[in-house]
Amino acid sequence: MVLFVLACGLSVTLGLMNFVNLAHGAFAMAGGYAATILMNRWGWPFVATLPFAFLVPALIGVVLERTLYRRLYDASHLDQVLFTIGLVFMAVAGTDYLMGSQPQLIRLPEWLSGRFEFLGMQIGRYRLFIVVVCSLLTVALQLVLNRTRFGSRLRAAVDDPRVARGLGIPVERVFMVTFAAGSGLAGLGGALGAELLGLDPIFPLKFMIYFLIVVTVGGTTGLIGPFVASLILGIADVAGKYFVPDLGAFIIYTVMIVVLVFRPRGLFVRS
């Protein structure tokens, strides 16, 4: 579920806007640092920091989209990859300079710590919290994308921006809002995943490959694909490390290869 929360923002920018944003992890890191700063320096409770973990990267995304990203919407994917990789290294260096290289700690509230027993199984409270948040997020995003005028405008703007402008759709504004939402979702994922994955300046580089695997296996035409892919990959990764610990680290890549052999465009592809 943490994989999905982290990758769903990339699904928005890559799948819906057709923009290869490898700097996605930098926005996740920004959300994680926003949460840790509010908690550790200002004493905010964890749950109260989550809205700001969304808003801070979203605002950063708006600024960068208006000044840098929009210039590359029509560029080749190679140019987009090179540009966003450069942003990742700048984010890593900047964060290391400003915050130091030491890992940041998240202190969960007592009601989210520990485990409880349900039908003979031990369930972690925080992991269950992430499952609930992720499920609500998936439903909300699906409703926005498929049942609202904004979702229709976004699909039209991506399919043919010139025709969409002719129909009166504010394409630039739609892209800006979508990019901000994708950046905010990344930040929310960074805050939620900080306790489980750790948070330090090289966070975007460490987990970039996992974001890409989830979106690649699930497909880039919606959110259901990455949601299912994150479940399959997460279960395979944990089961592999438990049953075949010597090969456990490679299981996730094996699953990706097998899926892409039979479904080169991902599990869920819109015809």
Blueprint of the fold:
Blueprint: H1 2-16, H2 24-40, H3 46-67, H4 77-99, E1 115-118, E2 121-124, H5 125-147, H6 149-159, H7 161-166, H8 171-197, H9 203-218, H10 224-243, H11 248-262
Helix pairs in contact: 1-8, 1-9, 1-10, 2-3, 2-8, 2-9, 3-8, 5-6, 6-8, 9-10, 10-11
Features:
271 residues, mainly alpha, two-stranded antiparallel ribbon
Question: Quick recap of the structure?
Answer:
With 271 residues, this protein is mostly helical. 72% of the residues lie in helices and 3% in strands.
What does this structure look like?
The chain is mainly α and 271 residues long. The chain has helices at residues 2-16, 24-40, 46-67, 77-99, 125-147, 149-159, 161-166, 171-197, 203-218, 224-243, 248-262; strands at 115-118, 121-124. The chain has a two-stranded antiparallel sheet with strand order 1-2. α1 packs antiparallel against α10 (224-243) and α6 crosses α8 (171-197). 41% of the residues are buried. The model has no long low-confidence stretch (mean pLDDT 85).
**Strand adjacency order, main sheet:** 1-2
Helical fraction equals over 70%
Q: What number is the mean pLDDT?
A: 85
Instruction: Sketch the major β-sheet.
Output: 2 strands, antiparallel
Rg, Cα atoms, Å: 19 Å
Annotation field: number of helices: 11
- Count of strand segments: 2
Provide the succession of SSEs: HHHHEEHHHHHHH
Strand content: under 5%
Structural class: mainly alpha
Which blocks of ≥5 consecutive residues have pLDDT under 50?
A: none
CA-CA gap between termini: 27 Å
Q: Could you say which overall geometry the principal axes of the C-alpha atoms support? A: globular
